[in-house]
């Protein structure tokens, strides 16, 4: 009896997912990186790589964004700002970490003013390793995230707890 | 017109859903052309549709300290204004659905309603970025509105009518008014870009300075409605300028090509020019735009008196 209703809701779900994976608007946040990854992210936005063909757009306001692209380890000062930016984004939202420092703390791990890697503060959906990763790698990481959204799964987290020594 | 036919023409064709979808296609054409001018590949054809559906399905956050009525009401009023303006305009090369004496002025003010709503939405916000964006929106509104109106009054005066239908019928029967009133066409084209807040007049939503301008705090449905309203406004305003300056309504296919030529010109200007400061925008319009438009209207009046 509830077959047609089921069918409609499935169709709506399909359309929603299609729209979501075809128009991921991004916002970029640097929580203490050395700016290497940020330069690579800006290079990804240039006409040479042209990510607008996937529908990816860099937005200024977190209220408009779907994907939070984070770089760098989280410093004690940036922690509150990172959390606030994340909480200002409307659901559904995804977090992508670019660069080794965001994955493990990198060369900054154990620093007196560093909280740790991004996953200690936010639930991360995709990690893009590299120091810094090339624009192709960043595009590949985001495409993998989109594939996961399409399948309705979240990428498995590979970060082991306790990489960073207690500060 | 029977009530059913009226309802169908308002809801589905040529206004309503057809209008919204064609607005998205025009927006795509604009983005794609700008991308090609910048040597990029550009978005796929369904990009504005995907953006809109995604925004409509997202969570809508209402920040603290805002008036709920204004926050939820303004996007709806803005979209309504743009869709109402479409009823009196020759969209997609079809004769306007409704017309009454003086509908030109009503249509132009319906189109301005959008900017007013964006300005009020920013004014309602508690964020400093949206407040600055709102101030800039209003400043720019006062800058381009009078010259744009004067530029569209030129053809109306030549046709001796304030009805859009009559003006486009007059334009169809005479020389293209881009030849007889070239200044008016240029002002109308640039005024169109100011109305749609496209570069170089995108100071109200300059993302490198004030995040996203007046719409900084909007997310989800409100933002989607403003986006749809803007693309509808693009179609309506481009149709108006085409019908007035490029030889009336005529053949729908030819009309479509003419509107696309105007979109091409706008995309070229967007790709070529950089953002103007808000004082430069106002200076441009009041020092040159308004004066040239007034001069053309003066010449028109004198010529008409002389010929009569």
Describe the structure.
The complex is a heterodimer of chains A (167) and B (308). In chain A, 38% of the residues lie in helices and 16% in strands. Chain A is built from five helices and seven strands. Chain A has a five-stranded parallel β-sheet with strand order 2-1-3-5-7, with helices on both faces. In chain A, helix 1 (3-22) packs antiparallel against helix 5 and helix 2 packs across helix 5. The longest helix of chain A has 20 residues, at 3-22. The N and C termini of chain A lie far apart (60 Å). The relative contact order of chain A is 0.17. The model of chain A is unreliable at 157-167 (pLDDT under 50). Chain B has one domain. In chain B, helix 6 (128-159) packs parallel to helix 13 and helix 7 (164-173) packs across helix 11 (221-245). Chain B is globular. Classes of the chains: A alpha/beta (167), B mainly alpha (308). Chains A and B meet through helix 1 of A and helix 3 of B.
Write the layout of secondary structure elements.
The complex is a heterodimer of chains A (167) and B (308).
Chain A: H1 3-22, E1 25-30, H2 36-44, E2 57-58, E3 67-71, E4 74-75, H3 76-88, E5 94-98, H4 100-104, E6 114-116, E7 126-128, H5 135-151
Parallel strand pairs in A: 1-2, 1-3, 3-5, 5-7
Antiparallel strand pairs in A: 4-6
Chain B: H1 3-11, H2 17-37, H3 47-57, H4 68-87, H5 103-124, H6 128-159, H7 164-173, H8 177-180, H9 182-195, H10 207-210, H11 221-245, H12 252-272, H13 278-307
Helix pairs in contact in B: 2-11, 2-12, 3-11, 4-5, 4-11, 5-6, 6-7, 6-9, 6-13, 7-11, 9-11, 11-12
Question: How do you describe this structure in short?
Answer:
By secondary structure, chain A is an alpha/beta fold. In chain A, 38% of the residues lie in helices and 16% in strands. Chain B has helices spanning 3-11, 17-37, 47-57, 68-87, 103-124, 128-159, 164-173, 177-180, 182-195, 207-210, 221-245, 252-272, 278-307.
């Amino acid at each position: 009896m509830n077959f047609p209703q089921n069918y409609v809701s499935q169709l709506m779900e399909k359309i929603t997912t299609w729209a979501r994976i075809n128009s991921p608007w991004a916002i970029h946040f640097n929580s203490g990186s050395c700016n290497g990854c940020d330069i690579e992210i800006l290079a990804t936005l240039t006409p040479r790589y042209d990510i607008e063909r996937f529908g990816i757009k860099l937005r200024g306001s977190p209220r408009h964004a779907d994907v939070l692209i984070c770089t760098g380890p989280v410093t004690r000062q940036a922690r509150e700002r990172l959390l606030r930016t994340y909480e200002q984004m409307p659901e559904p939202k995804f977090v992508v970490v670019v660069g080794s420092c965001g994955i493990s703390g990198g060369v900054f791990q154990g620093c007196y003013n560093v909280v740790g890697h991004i996953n200690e503060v936010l639930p991360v959906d995709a990690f893009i390793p590299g120091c810094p990763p090339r624009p192709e790698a960043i595009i590949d990481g985001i495409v993998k995230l989109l594939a996961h959204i399409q399948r309705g799964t979240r990428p498995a987290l590979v970060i082991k707890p306790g990489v960073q020594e207690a500060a | 017109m029977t009530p059913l036919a009226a309802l169908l023409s308002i809801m589905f064709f040529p206004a309503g859903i057809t209008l919204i979808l064609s607005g998205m296609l025009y927006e795509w054409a604009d983005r794609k052309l700008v991308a090609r001018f910048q040597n990029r590949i550009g978005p796929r054809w369904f990009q504005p549709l995907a953006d809109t559906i995604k925004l409509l399905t997202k969570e809508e956050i209402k920040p603290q300290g805002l008036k709920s009525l204004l926050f939820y009401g303004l996007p709806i009023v803005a979209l309504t204004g743009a869709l109402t303006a479409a009823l009196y305009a020759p969209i997609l090369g079809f004769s306007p659905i409704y017309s009454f004496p003086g509908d030109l002025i009503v249509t132009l003010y319906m189109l301005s309603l959008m900017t007013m709503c964006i300005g009020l939405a920013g004014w309602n916000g508690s964020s400093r970025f949206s407040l600055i964006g709102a101030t800039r929106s209003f400043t720019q509104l006062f800058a381009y509105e009078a010259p744009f109106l004067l530029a569209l009054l030129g053809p109306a005066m030549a046709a001796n009518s304030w009805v859009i239908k009559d003006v486009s019928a007059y334009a169809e029967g005479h020389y293209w008014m881009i030849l007889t009133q070239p200044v008016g066409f240029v002002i109308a084209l640039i005024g169109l870009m100011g109305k749609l807040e496209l570069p170089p007049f995108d100071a109200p939503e300059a993302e490198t300075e004030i995040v996203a301008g007046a719409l900084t705090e909007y997310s989800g449905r409100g933002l989607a409605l403003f986006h749809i309203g803007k693309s509808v406004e693009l179609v309506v305003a481009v149709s108006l300028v085409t019908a007035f300056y490029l030889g009336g309504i005529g053949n729908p296919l030819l009309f479509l090509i003419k509107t696309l030529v105007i979109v091409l010109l706008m995309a070229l200007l967007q790709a070529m020019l950089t953002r103007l400061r808000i004082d430069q925008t106002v200076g441009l319009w009041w020092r040159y735009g308004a004066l040239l438009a007034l001069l053309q209207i003066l010449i028109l009046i004198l010529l008409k008196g002389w010929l009569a």
